[in-house]
Amino acid sequence: MPRTHNIIRVKFLANGPIQAGGDLGMEHHISVNPAPWMLKHYNDLHRRTPVQWLVPDFIADRPAAMIVDDLMDEGVDVLLLAYFVWNQELQMSVAELFKSRKPGGTVIGGGPQLAAHKDPEFFRKYPFMDYVVYGDGERALTEILDYLGTDQRGDFVNTVENRTGEAKVWPFQVLRDELYWSTSPYLSQRQHIRDSLQALYDRGYTNKDVMLAVEFARGCMYRCAYCDWSQNLTKKVLRRKAEWKQELEFFRDLDVMMRETDANFGQWKEDIEIYDYATKLYDPDRNFKFLVYNTSKLKRNADHFMIGNAETYDHRFVLSLEDTDPEVLEAMGRPSLPWHEHQQLLARIRHRLGEQRFRAKATAEFMLGLPKQTVETFKENFTKVLCEGIRNIILNQWVYAVNSPGADPEYLRSHGIEFIEHRVIQHTSQAPATTPYGYPFTGDLAELYDIAETSPHFVKQLMVMRTSYMSMEDMGTVIKAHQLILQTAVQNKLQRLITEDDWFDISGTTIDQIKHAHVRSVVDNVFAQARKIVAPIVEQHKQQIDKHGFAVISGHSDHITL
Question: What is the pTM (predicted TM-score) of this model?
Fold first, then answer.
């Protein structure tokens, strides 16, 4: 006979960041993870033991001790922790403290930044973790909860179990539950979602601060080196079959901004229909918007969303290029349109929006630290987008994702890729805001190292430091050149260059080629200036970097992000 238990009290803790939202037209936003509602929905459909789902917590704006105090007050039995690059330290601190104060409680981790299924030493390093779920988590979690409530163990899936410090890895299965995929995790728990958002509002946030993430399809058919979207587990894409019109109407009534989180939203006819219906629901006097990103590698429909973001919502549209060099794209396994097709795409968007609006809203995004990237390839990256009149350029460093294809040791070795611990300011309501990065800074880098090491408002990320193709100085030069290109004087000079109408034609040379040569000369000069600034800084602080093992963000004009 199965034993009977009191109702199991379950709490999902996302501990997500308050993210800077410049390209979203907001000062900051809280990204609300849809995972707790999806997990709860499956559990409601299939559970064999009673469960009480407490209101989830989405935002990291308190220290671990305060978080655990609240967990104790709520009587949490099972703690669900979502691990990402920005919160893994905090989540581990919360898990360890929770387990010390409630030894009989259960800690279950999930998310892309845990690799217990690959690491046999995981539970020796983190003995306070009881289970880690990899891949689709809905069925796995329900099986664990049923086991905790009844002592009846089935064949777990997608689960790594702590067996006295050793990993027991259960087999992986893609979730293909027809009942789950054909019903809505949002419409089935409207009040729970409202309560979840109200908990944020009760802490001083408003609906203008919230961005609700939503998933219409799961899986990714690609293997980009830097990305852990599908955790290398499946290329099968599964679409939900629920009533998305009613879902969008519900989100509209919540009056929050939302964005899709599908890996390749836009490749299917249904995506166009979803986006167009959301656009019809838009009211400029309300907060509800439906934003789409991650479309630039798609051959179909990319301009539909980019034009919509600018035309309907007055937001920037982002061309997530990562790089324009075919060899770089091939080395990181990323599908992408050839550059000439991107130019055609941009021409269509410019025609629709007009030149002024195009310049204001067009944004290009690159990633630094990829295989086969060099200073020269980055000069070309910047030159290409600047020639197209794009002035908003985002530069990201490659952040190590433990479950990505690029995390494979052989891949890293073959390209000489080295990561370094990089401390990044965590935007929270309680972090000081006296500088762009949250801390007063006198110019002493050693002081900033000390702050980053001791402050709870800095989070650790592993970021590329050097590769076989770029030194630390090279990477610093690209970062500094990007900063200089965004300065008003350089922007004005570039604008004059690309709008000149008196260039003389050189036999066998097109106007576009002449324009490219002129813009490239500006870019070359900017990179030369950047090198002069960066070289002595890298040399000066090399010992500190080697000593501390991490780099920091500096808001001081004479310093760079190393």
Answer: 0.88
